[in-house]
Amino acid sequence: MKEKLQYFPITTYAIVMGLSGLTIVFGKFYHMQWLPRIFYDLFLFLTLGLFLFISVMYGLKAMNHFEEVVKDFNHRIRINFFSAISISFLLLSVAFMTYWPFLSMAFWWVGLILHTILMLYTISFWIRHNFEIHFMNPAWFIPVVGNIIIPVAGVDYLPKAFSFFYFSVGFFFWIILFAIFLNRAIFHHQLPQKFIPTLFILIAPPAVGFIAYIRIAQSWDTFAVFMLFMAYFFVALLIFLYRSFAKLTFFLSWWAFTFPLMAVTLASIVAFQISHQPFYRGVSFILLVVDIFTVVFVTGHTIGKIREGEICVNED
Predict the structure, then answer these.
(1) What CATH number does residue 150 fall under?
(2) Which of 35, 48, 58, 256 lies at a C-alpha separation of 20 to 30 Å from 311?
(3) Per-residue pLDDT reduced to its tens digit, 288-300
């Protein structure tokens, strides 16, 4: 047990991100009167319980094996996953907005402060170290493009100008990092198997960006449609890349499938709320089925790997 705790991975927070996304989807379906409330309530507290469990476990790791946490924090790839902690707070804030606004605000403030610190530290870490191009993968999007999530609940807690700041930073780095990633993907060696599922992260920036922009600007305009259709484009692209996923060995990075799919589902629901076009409602239901299948699929594999003792192991 002590050895398992020593190697408890920071990437487990990706599970919280995925389940938080599904919780928010169930919440939106409930408020649209498309599903009963039970699914929303069940996943809301399941996700909160899992978040608390993972946080306690990683806290115990920090107390008993602090050198391993420092090692993770100075790792060229794993450092990006620390921002999954702050994003988990921000997503739980969105999930609790209509259920318990006070707790939502508390989660949002913690997530905001923590994410700002982690984002600035990670960018400074990138600048201070020399990186070869093969270190680049979509997990780099998490610390900086994660800023786009802040306005989703933030417009209710601070003036819109504040939300525009984080939206602008996230959008800017989405463009920059995507150009770097495209260069790495086309002109250099293929991604290692472990990181191929993180390609789904490419869906999240335009999908969450669309939701955040609607929340800030309250405008169904050309830019909003641009963001939404870019999210749909990446979904279509990943469908054409299905052969890259066919024979992968399971890693926790498979949870990268989940949150981006939830994000584009939520974007479709918001698009229907604004435009009332049946197309977006149809896409929302199709994506919900995909979301549920994906979560069931990766949950089954995760439980299987836990039983086999292959999760909390030395990854170096």
Answers:
(1) 1.50.10.150
(2) 48
(3) 999 999 999 889 9
